[in-house]
UniProtKB/TrEMBL annotation:
It comes from Robinsoniella peoriensis. Keywords: Flavoprotein. This is Flavoredoxin. GO terms for molecular function: FMN binding; oxidoreductase activity, acting on the CH-NH group of donors, NAD or NADP as acceptor. The keyword DNA-binding does not apply. SUPFAM superfamilies: FMN-binding split barrel.
Length: 192
């Protein structure tokens, strides 16, 4: 079998499908679904989201400099899709989807209570790159659902049923294949 050559485009999949909450003072908060998101660095903790300037949430984030990345789960797949195809200009997504707005600690943007992880962010820089503008942000706080803490105090993120986006489709994460560094980890010798 050979390979076809396609025109330049983005084919880095899967990606996290996240719901980003944002708000302007005195207005209803909004939720936008974003797949163009990720980690920039660990120290200091920084992330990015890329948003089209014509999206309703774009000006909210640009003007306030704040947003919350809310990780999504398989149970939230329909809400995740809805928040990506319906505009906050026309509908109150928190109310329509019966999602719980919870107060954040560092920003004036509500977190989504049903999400297992909420990441409070403050915009550091906006890169105008083309169809999307990249909001580079500092992570101010991370909130995790205590329901996924094990008896040793470890947060078991991979038991939350995380949602991924790949080439136009939403997917649940598959089977566990290994842990970071497992390919070079020395096997423990059995004692005799």
């Amino acid at each position: 079998m050979g390979k076809q050559t396609w025109k330049p485009g983005n084919m880095i999949y899967p990606l996290p499908a996240v719901m980003v909450s944002c708000a302007r003072e005195g207005e209803k908060p909004n939720i936008i679904t974003v797949a163009w998101t990720g980690t920039i660095c660990t120290n200091p903790p920084m992330v990015y989201i890329s948003v089209k300037p014509e999206r309703y949430s774009y000006d909210m984030i640009r003007e306030t400099g704040e947003f919350v990345i809310n990780l999504t789960t398989q149970k939230l797949a329909k809400a995740t899709d809805y928040c990506g195809v319906r505009s906050g200009r026309d509908v109150d997504k928190f109310q329509e989807l019966h999602l719980t707005p919870e107060a954040a600690e560092q920003v004036k943007v509500p977190m989504i209570g049903e999400c297992p992880v909420n990441i409070e962010c403050r915009v550091k820089e906006i890169k105008k790159l083309g169809s999307h503008h990249m909001f580079i942000a500092d992570v101010l706080a991370v909130h995790v659902d205590e329901a996924y803490m094990n008896e040793n105090g470890k947060f078991e993120l991979n038991k939350t049923g995380l949602l991924a986006y790949s080439h136009g489709e939403y997917l649940g994460l598959g089977e566990h294949l290994g842990t970071f560094g497992y390919s070079v980890k020395k096997k423990k010798r059995k004692r005799r």
